[in-house]
Write a structure and sequence with these properties.
single chain; mainly beta; Immunoglobulin-like; four-stranded antiparallel sheet; 21 strands; 11% helix
Length: 278
Amino acid sequence: MMRRIALLACLLLSFPFSAEALELTGEMEQGGLVIGRAEPGAKVSLDGMMLDVDESGTFAMGFDRDHGEGATLNIVYPDGRTETRALAIAKRDWQIQRVEGVPQKYVTPPPDAMAAIARGTKLKTEARKTRANGAWFTEDFIWPVTGPISGVFGSQRYYNGEPRRPHYGVDVAAKTGTPIVAPASGLVTLADMDMYFEGGLVFLDHGQGVTTLIMHMSRIDVKAGDFVKQGEVIGAVGGTGRATGPHLHWGMYWRGAYLDPQPLAGPMPENGGAAGGN
């Protein structure tokens, strides 16, 4: 009898668990953030890039605006089992606007701005080198500011027939001085009021490199190294940098991929104005 029980136990251990060993939640699309949960101790890679996996097996991954139609996720479980998943990444349509007759000085920065641009690029590059240990990206994101949505992720303008950089964020119209709150908890990795393009800029790492970018701020109330909780005021709306007027620009990136924060926060509260679409 004992021999039969031992044999049955060996057979059960030789097959994969009946329960789902890997869970993926989020938008499997261009600009989407996906949260994964694997067995603790598992090693996970996306298209050959090793991902950060915390002690609970939680990890993040994202897909850039121009990501192709597929990706490959590989998992090595603690007992040596392996799994490969082919991911289908949905393509999105982007708003394209063509504007002709724009004076060149408004399209290309003047030569005397190069030093300021280089300074900002260096600061942003340094800030992106580290990834906070945490999984605050699993919180339900909230809007940093409420108001009418005036710009959406992925849109792109052509000035005088030349493509400009796509819009990597969502814009919310609001008055100068309107408080901005942290959409989720995280570690401040950059806080600077003097960026050429972004003006007042804050990077807030929500863990594993999932980072909020808040731009054009009139005031910054945090500094690099601060930990802020969701809902805490981090500064105020402004129109600093290359902005045509006061508004919130909320961007997000993960390990080089620009993500769309709008789906994470859900519909704009009714008192915030009507949300736009892509």
